[in-house]
Write a structure and sequence with these properties.
The chain is α/β, with parallel strands linked by helices. The chain is built from five helices and six strands, in the order βαβαββαββαα. The two termini are 13 Å apart.
Length: 203
């Protein structure tokens, strides 16, 4: 008997977290000024459709442009993150995937990177499954390794949880890809393949 829908023939629930939102736009594109928060939600919605069509039950931490801090005027970021944790715990999911866009002072830095909590071996396995698929994308500029990270969203539960930094909005090539609808579809399908790969590994 399994819990949290951890068997492929069970009710597998996946939380998709679109980072930022509301007054917190995250980073912006070097050429277009595109907001990270908007792209995060766009990628999450595309991934939601793909996974839902495949039979997974999907829970979103946010499904609009708004943040999750309610009417708070103070400590918005903390309240926002606490609400995300509450949604994750209530969902009792099998996996948590948080979608973000990256930025770096060195404009040549590019590529997708996956972060995980080093204290959770299944999170590391999950991150590696996703990273391997992302590195195989034709547009991948270099092979990245999944990285241990000390992030709140990765520690909300014992569930395998990852942050996918989809690319660098500070890099012109990455930005052009990240705002392309065709690339977005390819990217989320690549994440989908990584998820299937993970479940194959653990079963």
């Amino acid at each position: 008997e399994t819990t949290s829908g951890s068997s492929l023939d069970g009710d597998i629930r996946i939380v998709l977290d679109a980072g930022h939102g509301g007054i917190d736009a995250g980073v912006t594109g070097v050429n277009t000024g595109v907001r990270e928060s908007d792209l995060n939600l766009l990628y999450v919605r595309k991934l939601e459709k793909l996974l839902s069509d495949a039979g997974f039950k999907i829970i979103l931490t946010r499904n609009s442009d708004a943040g999750l801090y309610g009417l708070a005027n103070k400590n918005r970021k903390r309240k926002d993150m606490q609400k995300r944790k509450e949604i994750i715990l209530d969902a009792n999911p099998s996996l948590v995937i948080s979608i973000h866009m990256n930025k770096y002072a060195l404009k040549s830095r590019r590529g997708a990177q996956v972060f995980y909590n080093k204290e959770n071996s299944n999170s590391k396995l999950f991150a590696n499954c996703i990273q391997k698929q992302l590195n195989d994308m034709p547009e991948s500029s270099r092979s990245c390794s999944s990285l241990a990270g000390d992030y709140y969203i990765l520690k909300c539960s014992e569930v395998p949880s990852i942050i996918i930094e989809c690319g660098f909005l500070s890099n012109e090539e990455d930005e052009a890809n990240l705002i392309s609808s065709e690339y977005q579809d390819d990217f989320v399908y690549t994440i989908f393949k990584g998820i299937i790969s993970y479940f194959t590994e653990i079963n």
